[in-house]
Amino acid sequence: MAGPQTPPTGSSRLERLIVTRPAPEAANWAAALCGQGWPALALPLIEIAAPVTEHEQQALRHWRAHWAEADAIMFVSAAAVKHFFSDAPERALAPASASAPSRTRFWAPGPGTARVLADALARLGLPPDRIDAPATDAAQFDSEHLWPVVAGQVGPGRRVLIVRGMSAGAADTPDDGQAVAGSGREWLIRQCQAAGAQVQGCVAYARRPPVLSAQDLQHVEGARGPGSVWLFSSSEALTPLQALYPASAWARASALVTHPRIAAAAQHSGFGHVVETRPALADVVRALESTWTPP
Asked: What is this structure's pTM?
């Protein structure tokens, strides 16, 4: 879906499309978009690393070994899936015993996360029908659209685990369900708690701003005017740009964003032309085709 748009501030001819997803997804997306005729460049503006604190690392080790104790596990992103299952021996991730197999459900906010999750579960011998996600034709892929799918699983005595990332510099607080940051996740947590469920969190990875090279900085400098479109799949990718330039520096550039909350953040950061789309590649391409002309 294409959301509300502000009027274009310059030519609709697209000269460069900056993909800001973390590596290696940024490179994969840039290659796919280039393959469809769009001048895409990968410039990851979020770096993904292992959990930083001892508390986070201990909690991750615990839940990798005891995930079957949760009635449902929500993975907030594909990165959450990859980092929860990476570097963990399969014996630590298998159900406790063959005679008492886990009935855990696995929640994904969208099809991209669901695909990565299906691969991870297959390695454990678990079928993809354990996964719950919004319909592929849902208006948006987020917690709000996931909730109607999973609400029937939640009730008194049920245990829900949220597997997510933590931003660099965030406070190291115990995960009691109140410290699982993120607007959509906070809303989902409130729904689960209102239904009587116990919600806990597990940090699978840390997000931090990247160290930009001289070439990266040249790309940023050259993409602040008409003809430049920045593709944002996370509001956090705006942070390095805000640190480099004031909001007024982005008035002539455009942002293509994959959620209304990211659209609001891009407008606050100064982008003069903001277009919303669903996060699937096909939807991004349709938004590009309806708004800009390729070179």
From this structure: 0.79
